[in-house]
């Protein structure tokens, strides 16, 4: 067991730090959360800066246009960019963390050449068309139909909770291509252009007040058969590749951010007198242990994937369960530090507290994650 | 960075498990409940196997390994509920004559309590003002120690844990235990082993015990209880292993919090999964819970760990 870095890794860190210090001051001001075109432009601008400096798709394989960095280097990248206050992936989330890695793993050479470079260069945004009104946690129950008509699929149905749909160029879309097969077997994975006729996007307002995601209606949308990634009716397996990426790496930068917030909370409490309350101190101390340990768990999981060379496994569920809960605890503690100010929606921590409520629901609810841990790691029988 | 067990570490862990399962299996555990005496022959066997001398340099007759290896050995000890003042004796190796080889049984005063006092050869710590120095092999003669004979003020307790005789000592009980982070870490390692074992026992039971025509583990209520046990075990594991690598006091404080929680709540959830059977003396579950409770009182407190972790936040070094 070792937690030290090699000289090469430390050199990588030093170069990255130097670059961040030079480039970050040149970034434009952050757009408001409701300004979707502004957010798209800002996030793509950051991606272009990364691309020009040779940091785009750092952890992607070289033959997919990435840098082929080791998982440890990727970890250092996420740690340093967050510490420096660099932008998060934002609108590039699906392209860089879901669709891109899936196409890299499962796509044909033509598909990789068409879709991967624009993601890396910061030219195209992707969204995720998985969930449906009647198929959330039971994802395989999706009903959006696609039938063959010549060289096209004709797609009808609707999707929901689609982040970035308003500004996306492409959608990674799950459709049912065989209605008679068992529900996991009749699904296909398509890349759908968002400007195709028949696509309607309706923003959904969240409990935080902002339009963070949207409903997408599909009315006889034509998608070329050539846009299918993986075999027809093999979309479920392709999707599982995507989801393991989502749970394995998506929250790494956020853990670093949470540790920074915790420090700010303590210093605020020190200023407003609440630090004298031993119960609050102990609560923050416990949260410090929580985020320190989540970071250790990240290092453990990254080392494991480095050893096995595979995609992140079911252990990602352990991380996701604990992290989503800890994040909610963090912002509840923030409310205790703020006192009455915690009811001011204009406060950054208040909005964070509201948005933290989605963490135990999105990307597989905590209840589904518990089932995954129980059945796939502990080997308990399926049932109800 | 390779934050995973090395092949040698995996082999060591497997070797200790094999030794302990052979020498302190379930029958031996239940026999010990009936007659809680320290098994001196086993103590010397542990000494021969290098359990106490694990971190002593080879030049001093030790095994020459580090804290991570010691933590793996203590995790295995916690797994089988191995009895005796293991942590105190391990920490005395090289300082108290005979400790390294298992010839001497060394205990210590921690937070007003002494484990296995009557059967130990040496009690370490400032025990109610009695400062005796027993034959010491190392350079720590300045450290306060009391020979067992001089600890006149100790009162026996009716120990909650049938496998850990306890004495209460007057005064602070000595600062020795509360300030030694290694005692905290090795105790956390034992808690980790206990937590992992109770998770296994719960899962085993949930897979085989049938109710309403199916294994109870098929019910989400039971399934989620087991999943939460595993999540706590894995958090405790990375916290304990990382602390063993860095030996950083705040990493050790984190390890303590997670390991205590995983062991105590794990044993309680294990009891719950076992239902009425879990509430009986015949079931082993209560032994895991009681030992976990005893360990939470050893070497400082959770409050101390939490305050230390809180102080780091204000210092701005987090």
UniProtKB/TrEMBL annotation, chain A:
Cross-referenced SUPFAM superfamilies: Acyl-CoA dehydrogenase C-terminal domain-like, Acyl-CoA dehydrogenase NM domain-like
Higher taxonomy: Bacteria, Bacillati, Actinomycetota, Actinomycetes, Kitasatosporales
Gene3D superfamilies to which the protein is assigned, alphabetical: Acyl-CoA dehydrogenase/oxidase, N-terminal domain, Butyryl-CoA Dehydrogenase, subunit A, domain 2, Butyryl-CoA Dehydrogenase, subunit A, domain 3
Gene Ontology CC terms, in alphabetical order: plasma membrane
Domain Acyl-CoA dehydrogenase/oxidase C-terminal span(s) in chain numbering: 233-378
Protein name: Acyl-CoA dehydrogenase
Gene Ontology MF terms in the entry: flavin adenine dinucleotide binding; oxidoreductase activity, acting on the CH-CH group of donors
Domain of life: Bacteria
Keyword terms: FAD, Flavoprotein, Oxidoreductase
Automatic annotation (TrEMBL), chain B:
Acyl-CoA dehydrogenase/oxidase N-terminal domain mapped to chain residues: 6-92
Cited InterPro entries: AcylCo_DH-like_C, AcylCo_DH/oxidase_C, AcylCoA_DH/ox_N, AcylCoA_DH/ox_N_sf, AcylCoA_DH/oxidase_NM_dom_sf
Cofactors, names only: FAD
GO molecular function, a single term: acyl-CoA dehydrogenase activity
Keywords: FAD, Flavoprotein, Oxidoreductase
Domain of life the protein comes from: Bacteria
Pfam (any one): Acyl-CoA_dh_N
Residue stretches making up the Acyl-CoA dehydrogenase/oxidase C-terminal domain: 186-299
PANTHER family hit by this protein: ACYL-COA DEHYDROGENASE (PTHR43884), ACYL-COA DEHYDROGENASE FADE28 (PTHR43884:SF20)
Family, similarity comment: Belongs to the acyl-CoA dehydrogenase family.
Protein name, UniProt field: Acyl-CoA dehydrogenase family protein
């Amino acid at each position: 067991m070792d937690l030290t870095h090699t000289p090469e890794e430390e050199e990588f860190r030093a170069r990255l730090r130097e670059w961040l210090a030079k480039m970050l001051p040149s970034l434009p001001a952050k757009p408001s959360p409701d300004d979707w075109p502004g957010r798209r432009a800002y996030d793509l601008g950051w991606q272009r800066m990364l691309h020009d400096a040779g940091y785009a798709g750092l952890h992607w394989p070289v033959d997919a246009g990435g840098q082929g960095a080791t998982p440890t280097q990727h970890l250092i990248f996420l740690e340093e960019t967050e510490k420096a206050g660099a932008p998060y992936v934002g609108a590039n989330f699906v392209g860089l963390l879901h669709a891109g890695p899936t196409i890299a793993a499962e796509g044909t050479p033509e598909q990789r050449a068409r879709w991967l470079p624009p993601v890396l260069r910061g030219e195209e945004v992707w969204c995720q068309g998985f969930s449906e009104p009647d198929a959330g946690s039971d994802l395989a129950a999706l009903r959006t139909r696609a039938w063959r008509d010549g060289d096209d699929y004709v797609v009808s149905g609707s999707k929901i909770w689609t982040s970035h749909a308003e500004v996306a160029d492409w959608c990674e879309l799950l459709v049912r291509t065989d209605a008679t097969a068992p529900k996991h077997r009749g699904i296909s994975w398509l890349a759908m252009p968002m400007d195709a006729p028949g696509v309607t996007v309706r923003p959904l307002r969240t409990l935080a007040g902002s339009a963070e995601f949207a409903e997408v209606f599909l009315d006889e949308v034509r998608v070329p058969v050539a846009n299918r990634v993986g075999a027809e009716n093999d979309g479920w397996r392709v999707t599982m590749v995507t989801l393991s990426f989502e749970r394995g790496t998506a929250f790494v930068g956020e853990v670093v951010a949470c540790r920074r917030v915790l420090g700010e909370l303590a210093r605020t409490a020190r200023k407003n007198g609440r630090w004298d309350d031993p119960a609050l101190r102990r609560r923050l101390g416990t949260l410090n242990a929580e985020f320190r340990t989540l970071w250790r768990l990240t290092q453990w999981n990254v080392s494991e994937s480095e050893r096995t060379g595979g995609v992140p496994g079911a252990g990602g569920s352990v991380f996701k369960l604990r992290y989503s809960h800890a994040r909610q605890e963090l912002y509840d503690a923030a409310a205790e530090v703020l006192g009455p100010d915690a009811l001011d929606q204009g406060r950054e921590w208040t909005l964070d507290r509201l948005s933290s409520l989605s963490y135990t629901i999105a990307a597989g609810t905590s209840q589904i994650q518990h089932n995954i841990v129980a059945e796939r790691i502990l080997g308990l029988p399926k049932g109800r | 960075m390779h934050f995973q067990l090395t092949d040698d570490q995996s082999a060591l862990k497997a070797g200790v498990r094999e030794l302990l399962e052979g020498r302190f299996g379930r029958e031996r555990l239940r026999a010990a409940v009936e007659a809680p005496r320290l098994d001196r022959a086993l103590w010397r066997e542990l000494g021969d196997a290098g359990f106490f001398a694990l971190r002593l340099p080879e030049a001093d007759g030790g095994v020459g390994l580090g804290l991570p290896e010691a933590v793996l050995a203590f995790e295995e000890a916690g797994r089988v509920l191995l009895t005796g003042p293991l942590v105190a004796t391990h920490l005395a190796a090289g300082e108290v004559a005979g400790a390294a080889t298992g010839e001497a049984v060394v205990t210590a005063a921690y937070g007003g309590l002494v484990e296995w006092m009557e059967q130990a050869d040496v009690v370490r710590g400032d025990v109610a003002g009695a400062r005796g120095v027993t034959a010491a092999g190392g350079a720590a003669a300045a450290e306060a120690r009391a020979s067992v004979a001089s600890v006149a003020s100790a009162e026996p307790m009716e120990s909650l844990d049938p496998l850990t005789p306890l004495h209460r000592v007057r005064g602070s009980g000595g600062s020795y235990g509360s300030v030694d982070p290694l005692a905290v870490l090795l105790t956390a390692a034992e808690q980790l082993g206990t937590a992992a074992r109770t998770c296994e026992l719960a899962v085993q039971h949930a897979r085989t015990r049938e109710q309403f025509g199916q294994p109870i583990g098929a019910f989400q209520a039971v399934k989620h209880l087991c999943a939460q046990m595993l999540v706590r075990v894995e958090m405790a594991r990375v916290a304990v292993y990382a602390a063993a690598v860095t030996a950083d006091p705040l990493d050790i404080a984190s390890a303590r919090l997670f390991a205590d929680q995983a062991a105590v709540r794990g044993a309680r959830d294990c009891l719950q999964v076992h239902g009425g059977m879990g509430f009986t003396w015949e079931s082993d579950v209560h032994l895991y819970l009681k030992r976990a409770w005893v360990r939470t009182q050893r070497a400082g407190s959770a409050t101390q760990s939490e305050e230390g972790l809180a102080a780091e936040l204000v210092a701005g070094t987090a």
